[in-house]
Structure formats: C-alpha cells, structure tokens
From TrEMBL:
Belongs to the bHLH protein family. InterPro entries: BHLH95-like, bHLH95_bHLH, bHLH_dom, HLH_DNA-bd_sf. Residues 82-132 form the BHLH domain. It comes from Oryza brachyantha (malo sina). This is BHLH domain-containing protein. Transmembrane segments: none annotated. Keywords: Transcription, Transcription regulation. It comes from the Eukaryota.
Length: 151
C-alpha cells in the first residue's frame, strides 16, 4: 500500500478529478461524502486504493471514466459529435438490415401480400412454419409406415 502523498502513476490526484466531476469546489475529501456516488474519497490522497478491486487502475482513472460516462462525452470533450454521427450511421444500417429481412420473410411466406405490415409478416411466418413442421411430421410418419410394410 502506498503512503499518503506518493504519486499515483502519473495520474492527477483523484480529489481534483472529484471536484471536476461534481462541478463545484466541494472538498469532501475523507468525509465519505461524494456527489459522484461510487467514488471513494478516502482513497483520494494518492493511495491508489479502490474498495471495488480495480486491479491496478487508479481511483483517478475510475473517476475520469465515471465523469465521461455521466455526461455522455469522452474525457477530451471533442469526440461527442463524431460518436453521435457514428451512432446515427450504425442505427440506419441496423434499420436497413431489419427492413431487408422483413422483405425477405414476406417473399418467403406465400400467403402474404406485398403491403403487409410487420405484425402480419411475423404472424403469417409463424403460422407458415408451424404448418411446415406438421407437414414434416406427417411425411415422417408416412415413411415409417411404408418402411414397416415393406420390411
């Protein structure tokens, strides 16, 4: 365990990060009070101790991660728009894939019209698959009967 006042592997003291997270100048160091919720102020003096078992990660690093996750932006603050654009693009791709899958499903189910809504497509596909399962069961039963008669 490191002594008080020792460096934390080059990371800034967690008390500074804690004041950045809270957005104010509240210095509740060592009191057990923390506005960030899961931060451990007792470990703020460079001890590098985390009750959650951080496996070598400093409290400052955990606090910075908590700060970036609470406001939804990266720690640098400049990557928010790029991440938002990537999210929008990924969501468009996901919707396009779903649309194509519904189109394929609609084409595979013979009883569906070209303008069927999604609920109808899924419901008719379920009915069609159950019908196919019954047909397979019936054909297997017939085959067993035929094989038993010829044996």
């Amino acid at each position: 365990m490191a002594k008080e006042g020792t460096s934390n592997g080059g990371a800034p003291p967690a008390a500074n990060v804690n004041s950045m997270v809270s957005g104010g100048d509240n210095n509740n160091e060592g009191t057990g009070d923390s506005q960030a919720g899961n931060l451990q102020p007792a470990a703020d003096k460079g001890k590098g101790v985390d009750e959650g078992g951080s496996n070598g990660k400093s409290t400052a690093t955990a606090a910075a991660a908590a700060a970036s996750s609470t406001n939804g932006r990266a720690a640098g603050g400049g990557g928010g728009r790029s991440r938002e654009r990537m999210h929008i693009f990924a969501e468009r791709e996901r919707r396009r894939k779903i649309k194509n899958m519904f189109t394929d499903l609609r084409e595979l189910v013979p009883s569906l019209t070209s303008k069927a809504d999604k609920a109808s497509i899924v419901g008719e596909a379920i009915s069609f698959i159950r019908g196919l399962e019954e047909t397979v069961t019936d054909l297997e039963r017939r085959k067993r009967e035929r094989d038993s008669l010829t044996a």
